[in-house]
Every structure is written in structure tokens, then in C-alpha cells.
Design goal:
The chain has helices at residues 13-22, 78-91, 111-128, 142-149, 167-173, 192-197, 212-227, and strands at 3-5, 10-11, 30-35, 38-47, 52-59, 68-74, 95-99, 135-136, 154-158, 179-184, 201-203. By secondary structure, it is an alpha/beta fold. It folds into 2 domains: 3-59, Hypothetical PUA domain-like, domain 1 (Ribosomal Protein L25, Chain P), CATH 2.40.240; 68-227, SPOUT methyltransferase, trefoil knot domain (Alpha/beta knot). It has a 6-stranded parallel beta sheet with strand order 8-7-6-10-9-11, with helices on both faces. It has a 5-stranded mixed beta sheet with strand order 1-3-4-5-2. A hairpin with a 2-residue loop joins strand 3 (30-35) and strand 4. The longest helix has 18 residues, at 111-128.
């Protein structure tokens, strides 16, 4: 079934136009509705190219992960952040937080960039059948990020100089953790000063050097496989 966001029983104008003109749906057709953080089997009650009313029939089983992952990403180039918005949503990550770090190539992130990331995330939610969108945080300064990272049960930082500790070692030490933060450096890597300041435990992702976006997806997938539901 086709999936749409539904607010107070209504499709927004863009979705109503797409449903009626492109998908050729009509009143009586069933859809999957995403509403207030849950998934529903639903039926279109009324539909035009300007508006649509939806009846929620039954709530579908929840598929959100029991693990809450916050991915702190050293601010990368725009296209890499967009890639992460899509792929981390698919993996079930709870929050993506860009961080301005010493070696960040990108220098800033405006409101329009955040809005685009949120749109990408919302579309990824439909594809992967999550019930809610991954949160996209405003870009934080390093100082702000340190304060936020301190709130996590376990903080992990994939680092090229971490030669012995692996993700599974941290899982063995903290098997009951449910709120995990992962810090991934920007294209230029993490400085030694940042490593010493952050509350994260360094881990290795193997003998090969990964790109920033590859490291982020790999670390999130490993954490989800160990602590989560992958």
C-alpha cells in the first residue's frame, strides 16, 4: 500500500495532488497512514487534487528500534549529510546531530539545509516503513556537542588510532545500554584534542580507513546489530 503522512485525518495538499493525479487513488482505497508517531491501515474517505480526508482503521505493529542512537557527525559537505539523513533513517537511528569540528570542511548549515534534510528523512521513513522520522538537530558547536554527548549512556567514537577495542567489546561491557551516542569525524578526521575532550570511548572499525559517511553508517549498523533490532 502507498504510504502518506496524515495530520488530524487529512492529507496535505502536495500528497493529495500526488495521490489523485499520479497514483490515481480514489475514495475507498486503502493506504498506510503515518500519524502522531504510529503506522495505521487507513482508508481514503474523500480525495481531490487539493485535499484528502483519511479514516484510520487499525494501528499496525510498531517497528521503531528499542535502541536510541544519536549520531554526532562532524559537519561534512552537504551531499554527504543528505546521504546520511537517508541511510541512518533506514537503519532506525533516532537523531542526526551535525557538529562543527576543528577539521570540518563545511562551515555552516542554514534553515533551508535543515528543511531539505527533514524532507529527505520523511521520504526515507515512507520507504523503510518506520513510524516516525529521525530527528535532525541544528548544527552544534563543539562545546554544545560535548554537553549533549554527556547525556548518553554510552558514547562511541570510531577512530583510526583505536587499534584494539571493537564495538563488540563495548557491548560486552554495557549490554543493557539503550541510549547510545556515536561521534564520527568530518572529512578531515578528528583532532587529538577533540579525542581527549570528548566523553566517547574510541573503537576501531577495522584496518582500513573509511570515509566519514561510510564510518557513520557502519558504526550505526554495528550498534544496531549488537544492542538493537537489526
Amino acid at each position: 500500500m502507498h504510504t502518506f503522512y496524515v495530520t488530524a485525518g487529512q492529507l496535505d495538499k502536495e500528497d493529495a495532488r500526488h495521490a489523485s493525479r499520479v497514483l490515481r487513488l480514489k475514495a475507498g482505497d486503502e493506504i498506510t497512514a503515518l500519524s502522531e508517531g504510529a503506522r495505521y491501515r487507513a482508508r481514503i474517505a474523500q480525495l481531490s487534487d487539493k485535499a484528502g480526508a483519511v479514516e484510520l482503521l487499525e494501528e499496525l505493529p510498531a517497528n521503531e528500534s528499542p535502541l536510541s542512537i544519536t549520531l554526532y557527525q562532524g559537519l561534512p559537505k552537504a551531499e554527504k549529510l543528505e546521504f546520511l539523513a537517508q541511510k541512518l533513517t533506514e537503519l532506525g537511528v533516532a537523531r542526526l546531530t551535525p557538529v562543527r569540528m576543528a577539521r570540518s570542511v563545511a562551515k555552516g548549515e542554514g534553515d533551508r539545509r535543515t528543511e531539505r534534510l527533514e524532507r529527505i528523512t520523511r521520504e526515507a521513513v515512507k520507504q523503510c516503513r518506520r513510524a516516525r522520522a529521525m530527528e535532525i538537530s541544528p548544527a552544534l558547536s563543539w562545546k554544545e556537542a560535548l554537553s549533549d554527548m554527556a547525556k548518553r549512556e554510552v558514547m562511541i567514537v570510531p577512530w583510526e588510532d583505536a587499534s584494539s577495542t571493537r564495538m563488540r567489546d563495548l557491548f560486552a561491557a554495557f549490554p543493557q545500554a539503550r541510549d547510545i551516542g556515536i561521534l564520527v569525524g568530518p572529512e578531515g578526521g578528528i583532532s587529538s584534542e577533540e579525542i581527549s575532550e570528548c566523553p566517547a570511548r574510541p573503537v576501531t572499525l577495522g584496518p582500513r580507513i573509511l570515509r566519514a559517511e561510510t564510518a557513520a553508517v557502519t558504526a550505526a549498523a554495528l550498534a544496531m546489530g549488537l544492542w538493537g533490532d537489526v
